[in-house]
Design brief:
By secondary structure, this protein is α/β, with parallel strands linked by helices. It binds zinc ion (ZN).
Amino acid sequence: MLSFRLIQSRVLLQLLLAATAALAYTRLSDASLARVPSGDDDFDATSGKLLAPILIPRVPGTPGSEKARRHFADFFAAQLPRWIVEWHNSTSVTPATGDEEVPFVNLVVRRDPPWAVAEGDVARLTLAAHYDSLYRPEGFIGAVDSAAPCALLMHVARSVDRALTSKWDAMLANGEVGGGLEEEKGLQIIFIDGEEAWVEWTDSDSLYGSRALAEKWESTSQEGIHSTPLQSISLFMLLDLLGAAEPRIPSYFGKTHWAYQHLAAAEDRLRGLSILETRPEPHPFLVDNQKRSYEFTRGFVQDDHVPFLERGVDVLHLIPTPFPAVWHTMDDDGAHLDIPTLRDWAKIITVFVAEWMDLEGFLPPLQQDGEKTDTRHSKKDEL
Ligand SMILES: [Zn+2]
């Protein structure tokens, strides 16, 4: 009986540790907040290395779409080689293109802890944005929809990459790995194709890439705590329509309001330390920090999270309500972006990711101006 109880309490301990690991979220110190990079002129609409190359029409199956994909893949290959790159291909007919099968290509990049664990033992914070642009009007750019969010995700990956390496190296050196008692934390970014409707938004004419990916990940089995790649998503954080001034981002889901509050706290602390450039009035970007559980309704915005939400994945949706005034017009271009707002988003989201990944103490100092200039020159061809 005694040994049975011991076994029971060990199981309980394991469950408790797993739950603690899933919820662990360590605030950055003020000193670390000051180290979070803004991306500087990488978000410039005409010359920014992250953003400018994808401010082009990116209709699925066209050369612009291929060019955007290459931009992401080349960036990770050249600057973030530790990230694993995975392509996810599907095809579909659309109401605008007749019998022709249009290709939809999602790009998934991820970093998992370097020690050997079963694929399913890693729970991944998953950030996503769509990179396709509207089929009509012809020549539509889609700067906030969603080239700028894609550039933000590239920036976030770059901003935490060294800290992830340092943290995991330190854990290995201290023998803190391989206990097998808790799931490991990974980070994953998805550049999604085919979000837009070709004719009119319906269940079948929209979300081509995300529907195919969620279906694939639900039906793929893997070893470990989480039996599918879908279950390995700890939080699906979707960015859309970001880059216009004075956004108002509600908290859409009671279930993930705790994560929203962490993000809102990051914005609040960064503003308190005068680290952000914008001074939005009368409310911050994230308006719903004080929202109560009974205030949540079933209303939400249709977007790439839906196929994941329907399958039980926790979702944090960063999309403004109301939409930016330029939404689905020819004015949604680089000239109408508010770059200080973008740089502030870059910081806020990087802080959230760094806190989620427990990177306190591991963020490298910001490069000095002179040093930065040198690095930029030498990195000029890397994109
Ligand atoms: Zn759109």
